[in-house]
User: Which sequence fits this backbone?
């Protein structure tokens, strides 16, 4: 006869159900949390560092073609002012022009939403004040600017060298045409921007409230074309007032 110590152990109570949710229970929340974090980071980068844009019009022909895809960086102008020759993306004149703005009020949240991919394709959501324009800086603060009827530019008494312009405004025998002229000094904190397609660009020459773009309205500097692949590369933005480097002035160490 066995002793009590040798008896089979008494039945143990059933373990309590695990109070922690299983991996399968967590997975939907973990997935959507990851999606939200990813979207938040992407949106933050787009708003503060870099974003992609496409060319919707012909105002920058021939250098920038319709539907070209560009990268726009937003860091340079935090530490310096825009320079002549640079291609900039900026808020539409309806956002800052004193004549146009009263009829086109749009808050930053609405503009953020209507410019999101796919959302901006929904009919009826578009607002001119939320659009972005792309032009080239031809004059900066303090420059004395003269633009003739053809759209040719003189800055501080010197004719700009603009190899990127191939289409000037048409003029008649008297030298007059549909494009507006300008003779003014660029005020502090502003630049003058024009389209490379000088004969077909709604730029500072035509804005009803004034010709000059406030630096604060610039979104960023277009610096790289990534589509189409055949023309991908850095965007050329030489200062049109500075002479090109002579071919003989090779960099140190370069073959002559």
Assistant:
């Amino acid at each position: 006869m066995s002793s009590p110590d040798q008896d089979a152990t008494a039945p143990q109570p059933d373990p309590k159900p695990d109070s922690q949710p299983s991996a399968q229970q967590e997975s939907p929340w973990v997935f959507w949390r990851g999606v939200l974090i990813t979207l938040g980071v992407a949106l933050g980068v787009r708003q503060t560092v870099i974003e992609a844009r496409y060319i919707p019009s012909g105002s920058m022909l021939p250098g920038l073609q319709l539907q070209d895809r560009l990268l726009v960086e937003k860091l340079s102008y935090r530490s310096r002012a825009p320079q002549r020759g640079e291609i900039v993306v900026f808020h539409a004149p309806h956002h800052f022009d004193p004549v146009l703005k009263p009829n086109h009020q749009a808050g930053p949240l609405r503009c953020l939403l209507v410019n999101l991919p796919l959302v901006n394709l929904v009919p009826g959501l578009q607002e001119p004040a939320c659009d972005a324009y792309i032009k080239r800086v031809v004059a900066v603060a303090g420059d004395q600017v003269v633009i003739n009827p053809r759209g040719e530019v003189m800055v501080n008494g010197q004719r700009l060298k603009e190899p990127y312009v191939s289409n000037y405004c048409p003029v008649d025998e008297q030298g007059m045409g549909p494009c507006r002229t300008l003779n003014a000094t660029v005020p502090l904190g502003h630049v003058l921007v024009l389209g490379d397609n000088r004969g077909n660009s709604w730029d500072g020459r035509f804005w009803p409230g004034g010709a000059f773009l406030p630096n604060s309205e610039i979104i960023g500097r277009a610096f790289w074309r990534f589509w189409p692949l055949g023309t991908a590369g850095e965007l050329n933005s030489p200062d049109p007032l500075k002479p090109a480097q002579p071919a003989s002035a090779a960099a140190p160490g370069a073959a002559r």
Observations:
- Residues 245-256 have pLDDT under 50 and may be disordered.
